[in-house]
Amino acid sequence: MSGKRIVVVGASRLGCEFALAARAAGNEVTLVDEHPQELKSMSFDAPYFYGSGLPASLSDATAVFDNVLSSNELLLECVENEVDVKVGVVAWGAFHNAPNSQHIGTPKVGIVSREGNELLEYDHLVLATGSRDFVPSFKGWDLPGVLGGKAATKLLQSYQCFNGSRCLVLGTTALAVEFARAAIGRGLEIAGFVEPTGVFQSDEQDLEWAGEQDIPVFYQSVLLEAQGTDKISSATIISIDGTNKRTGINCDTICVAIAVLPNVELPAAMGCAMRFAEEYSAWVPIVDSKLETSVPNVHWLSTFNKEDHQVARVLAATAGKDTEEPHDTAPSGQPSPANYIDLWVAKLHETGGSDVVLCQCESVTRGEFLDLQPPRYLKAGMRAPHVATTGGEVGPRVSQDMTKRMTRVGMGHCQGKRCRDEAAILLAQRYGIDVADIKPASYRFPVRPVDMALIAAEDDDYHTREKWPHWMHEEVVPESVAGQQKR
């Protein structure tokens, strides 16, 4: 095939649509998607917040593969149109020539599966990695049965397995209603929606549907605590209208469908320039009219982009054609996700207090994090009180990498996917600064927890084995010449 070599990461709707269009244009297209995931990978809550109550039926790899593949019609269409589809494969890194890596040569994407590691060379890399769950902390959020809205919907619709029969839903967003519809369609019961404002966040049609299903909506309320021992048995919500009324609810599952955030680990770790999108309270890659990032020939396809005709724009770019200036899509009319996220975090902290665990991996509470307390295992406190802000002419600033190193919040095996976003918002609320003024914690390869044995070379080559102590001081001698010198 004489076309370009294009690698698409993510079998989202946009990813599949672009893969089909690029293949129809005569390009050599490889589509990589991490679903279906192994049970072990899902336990790290990446990309979605699955929680600790995953169904045992997920261990049946054959059934899971059939369910996930058959649930994505666009992905099946890609297979039929000779797109090289690689499912159950993680894109753990991407590499290109840069100041600190000058000998990469042709840009490459590192992918890994159960069979091992592979480096895919590309002419264009299209990142269509979709979104991830935002799940703020509350008392009992580590119990089996707590999961994010994206995770819950994916388990129901794609993996077709779900633990739980009666679910309490946090939030009244479109995602919350999408999950509720899917759950009721599969015979589950919705115990209610919990909403901190007095307004249903999704549209009137969804509100009318909730009323037809007799699903209660607990307005001006947030979750106080999830109760249970080895799994959720009930939950307590508390009103925030000044009455502090507490209501107990019988449920075995809590679906947190407050908001979703963009998956940006890969572009961020690659070194793509980022900007803070205030409407989402999230960092996203900076793109031009061709949706090209600051890294040449790397494009970002996402519903978090405002530009119209995204597939056509990127396709034109891969063909070397000019594109028109982008036109922002019409506003959705939905409330700002950033304000909604901020409200949930503030009210959960206000009602739940500082003793709630923020970082599950390292068992660090909200209070310990905000007070910059060192890890408990050091058995030592700070010699003097410290604050997370630094001064300057432009006003206070916070480095999340600094707070991460001091408290270990974000340094666990989930790579900060559970807590990093809430941690930044808590810092902003504590010190009265914008989240945009908090330098985000860095991402590093591999962007997913993978077995190092799978991505390591089976054996060192001659130069690595014999010459590594002298790389900085000696010219590397080819092995053939070295053999002659020895003789």
Structure overview:
There is one protein chain. The two termini are 47 Å apart. The strands form eight sheets. A five-stranded parallel sheet has the order 3-2-1-7-20, with helices on one face. Strands 9-16-10-11-12 form a five-stranded parallel sheet. A three-stranded antiparallel sheet has the order 4-5-6. The protein is α/β, with parallel strands linked by helices and 487 residues long. Strand 18 and strand 19 (282-285) form a beta hairpin.
Descriptive labels:
single chain; 487 residues; alpha/beta; 5-stranded parallel beta sheet; globular
Q: Tell me, rounded to a whole number, the average pLDDT.
A: 89
Q: Determine the strand fraction and express it as a percent band.
A: 15-25%
The residue ranges in which pLDDT falls below 50 over 5 or more consecutive positions are none
- List the total number of helices: 16
Structural class, by secondary structure, is: alpha/beta
Please count the beta strands (DSSP E, at least 2 residues each).
25
What's the overall geometry? globular
Strand count, sense and barrel status of the largest sheet are:
5 strands, parallel
User: What is the distance, rounded to the nearest whole angstrom, between the alpha carbons of the first and last residues?
Assistant: 47 Å
- Helix share bin: 25-40%
The radius of gyration over CA amounts to: 24 Å
Strand order, sheet with most strands? 3-2-1-7-20
